[in-house]
Each structure stands twice: as C-alpha cells, then as structure tokens.
Amino acid sequence: MKTNQKKAWLFLAPTIIFVTLFSIYPILRAFGMSFQSGSLIDLRWTGFSNYQYIFKDPEFWLAIKNTVLYAIISVPVGLAISIMLAWIIFDKVKHKSFFETTFFMPYVTSTIAIGIVFRYIFNGDYGMLNFVLRCLHLPAPDWIDDPAMSLTTIIIFGIWSSLAFNIVILMGALRNIDPNFYTIADMFGASGRDKFWRITMPELVPTIAFLLTMNVIGAFKIYTSVYALFNGQAGVGNSGTTAVFYIYNKFQIVGTPGVAMAATVILFLIILFATFLQRKMMKKIGEY
Q: The ABC transmembrane type-1 domain covers which part of the protein (predicted)?
C-alpha cells in the first residue's frame, strides 16, 4: 500500500510542482505585493495603504462597475443565445459538423484580430453596423468614440465572442441526450416546446452550469476585447475601463505594482464570491 502511495506521489509530483509554481505561488506573491509600495526592484512594506488608495480611487470603482455590468448582461444573454442556436442547429439543420466548425472558428482566432475587424464594423462614420441602422432608419450612435456607448460596445462584442465556445460545448451535450427520451415523448404526443423544456433543458443543466462558471470567470477577466476595440485604450476618458485593464494600467503604465496587486486581490475575491453564488444557484436549480 505504501509503495503504491509513493508511486502515486511520484506521478503527481510534476503536476503539483507546475501548479505550485504557476498558480499558487503567483497568488501568494500578489497578495504579499498588495501590502508593498515602490517599484518592482525596490518594494517596501506599507501595510494597507494600497487598499486605501484603490477604495478612494473613482477609476477603480468605475472599472468594477463596468466589469460587474458586463458580467451580469453579457453572460446570461450570450448563454441564452447559444442555447437557442445550438438547439436550432441540432434539431433543424443538416450537416451539423459544418456549422459547428463555422461557429468554432472565432474561438481559435486571435481576439486582437477580431477586435480590429469589429472596430471598423462599429465605426460611427463608415462602419457596417451604422450603415445597416441608417438603412432601417434607426439611430446610428458613435459606438467607439462616444463615452456613453463604450460599455455597450464591449458587451455586444463580448456576447458575440462567447457564442463560439458555448455552442460547440452545447452541441456535444445535446448529442449525449438519449434519443429514446424524444421517441417516448413523441409517442405521447409531446410538442416541440414540451420536449425542449421537459427533456432538453433538464439534461443540459450540468453543461449550462459548467458554461456559466467559465463565462462568469471570463467576464470578470475581460481585457483583450477592450484593448482591441479601443486601439490600446479603454475608451474615451477611460469610459470602458475594466478591472483587469485597471490592473494593467497601474502595473505597466503608471508603475505602481502594489496598487495593481491590491486591485488583483479584490478582483480575485469578487470572482470567488460570484462563482460560489452561481454554483449554489445552479445546484438549487438542478435539484428541481
């Protein structure tokens, strides 16, 4: 028995070392740096001064507000659209593999590259989106250069970006549903709506819970999309700044790593709390 345990620890050792060096240690290091001030080569202990600074910084609260709103809106909307599209493809469309590949392509494409394309689509003067809106006689806002539209632009791009991964995972889950369930439902004259809500959705709960967790975590870490859409900025007057963009700005641009790490710790706690609430909620839903 002891020999087997030694062998098990031997096989686990590379993974444990890897996780410790690249996951656990950075978290502990960030927590320690959040109590220090100065440059990276001259950090000194200053207690809670960094936390006091970020809690009084209006830009930090704007970043948190934007990040929370982005997560609250983009995650459920993106997941709902993904479920609808996955079900339509699975139930109505032939050659499903072609559509799966098409939807998955954005996921393996650089976010920066896609963001540059969307920057032209959202352009207020010659963008495709405003061209369509004008043809429909609808308001055509300045998506990029209007501070009031910055967060809306990020949310729209975020919803579109989330579809690729969600749809492919949902298609795999739909294939794993026992077709006999639908056969029996047809025998009893169940409608398409009844089959969707009484068979498909309950069977998808574990997959939806997984996607919800991944999407929530991803939403709170939003950065690359903002960088790409606004050409390295966070919108006009930092109107589209997010928590991670705030951390990047304080660490890389301003040169205050202690402040950046304090914001990192707060963001880590927010993600932990949001993920905990989401999993408790999905557990309750799964019990019904």
A: 64-278
